[in-house]
Amino acid sequence: MGGAEVSTGVIAGGLAQAGCQVRVVTRAAERSEVGEEIWKGIRVRSFWDRYDERFRAYYTIYNRPALQMVRQELARFRPDVVQAHNVRNHISFSSLWAARRAGIPVVFTAHDPGAICQQKMICGIDLESLGQKTRYEARPGKCGPCMRFRYFPLRNFLIRRILEGPKSRVMAVSRELSKILETNGYRSVEVLPNGIDVEMYARVQEEEIQAFRAQHEIPPERLVIGGGGRLSFWKGFDHLVDAAAKLSGLGIEDFQIVLVGRRGGYEQSLLERARTLGIEDRILFVGWMDPEDLPVYYAACDVVTVPSIIPDSLPRTALEAMAAARPVLGSPFGGTPEIIVDGVTGRLANPLVPEEFANALAELLSDPVRGRSMGEAGRQRVLEHFSIESNVQRRLELYRSLGGARAPLQPASSGIR
Predict the structure, then answer these.
(1) Are 106 and 178 contained in the same domain?
(2) How confident is the model at residue 409 (pLDDT cuts 50, 70, 90)?
(3) Are 222 and 369 in the same domain?
(4) What is the pTM of this model?
(5) Is 172 found in the same domain as 27?
(6) In what side-by-side order are the strands of the sheet with 106-110?
């Protein structure tokens, strides 16, 4: 699961704890997993599909297996509101149209620019200008050459028509994502940041940290630089390695970059880059970790980095690290500056300028007292602005304004993927 899927699960759990009846419809990861199950007290029903990736733009609009199941659940569960999240890959936007036709209010939470770009707006940050310019418009002359034979000219128009209506709302998890959507024709996009369970990151014991370091053969005195998510070039890890190669010249000799995330082919190219720079032995991949295991990982880090070079909407890695009271070094792109307060909870630096990113990284690593102070400030900021409790309360207020939640709180249906 990516950050959006994890956030969706946290939101569904928060709604259930607030007294809502929640039912989740999602696509099963494997055909053998299709069916119904109870997850943290929530009934989850899954379906299976598989299609040629070349036709994803069409399945984003209409996916028959998903639509059939959603219609069944609407009839069986009769929800007061449909809360949709990442529907573009499998659930499809026609499922939301089915809910609207049934007279059920629909709230669509955008976790990324997927409603207007199949590639998560990887072209949104102009690399040639080192990020000084943004290119948020999704227009045929730009998207056609990018997508080539996978391009469907009516895709974005149809999605917008489905989401527009008196009983529908579009929400974005950051102001920057709202700006991207409104640049492409959406009106009155409300902003509601993702919430996280802050307390789960405060329950880590010192023995657990020592065990994690021992498991991965990290000496107790070695500085640990964290980072993770979907490991890829666009997440900026090439640029993190470039910056790390300069740390020895800045007085930081003994460090380890410890990356968490699903392993694929990318780590080989990253290791090759590190080998060229002479720091291959400083890179460690620990693979995928379940959300409940991440607090120990963050606690073992001295600094956590979010070096993305695309407009990431609201990087969950930054929120989780701050909840774990760790200083965060993030890029100035996307929604990251809405999380990190530069000089207070961490630093913002441009990963496209290796010297700038390296200096900020060295600054955080060389002053552990200041790092701890920033970490505590970060945790307080998450408590005040990004808790799951405040997220759920804002969400329920919106449901009520749409006539989609009676008192006492009644069913909410949540679609994940």
Answers:
(1) yes
(2) very low
(3) yes
(4) 0.93
(5) yes
(6) 35-39, 42-47, 22-27, 412-415, 81-84, 106-110, 168-172, 190-191
Contacts of 77 (CB under 8 A, 6+ apart): 23, 411, 413
> HSE on the CB side for 95, CA within 13 Å?
35
Domain that holds residue 347: 200-385
Shared-domain flag, residues 282 and 325 = yes
Q: Give mean pLDDT, residues 396-414.
A: 66
Q: Give the CA radius of gyration of the chain.
A: 22
Can you tell me the distance from the alpha carbon of 321 to that of 327, in angstroms, rounded to the nearest whole number?
7
CATH code: domain of residue 210: 3.40.50.2000
- DSSP annotation string for 118-135: TTTTTTSB-TTTTTS-B-
Q: What's the whole-number average pLDDT of the chain? A: 93
Residue 36 φ then ψ, to 5°: -120, 145
- Pair 144, 204 in one domain: no
**For 2-49, what is each residue's pLDDT tens digit?**
677 888 888 999 999 999 999 999 999 899 999 999 988 899 999 999
In Å, how far are 168, 403, 406 from 99, measured between CA atoms?
A: 10, 14, 18
Are residues 379 and 394 part of one domain? no
Please state the domain count of the chain.
2
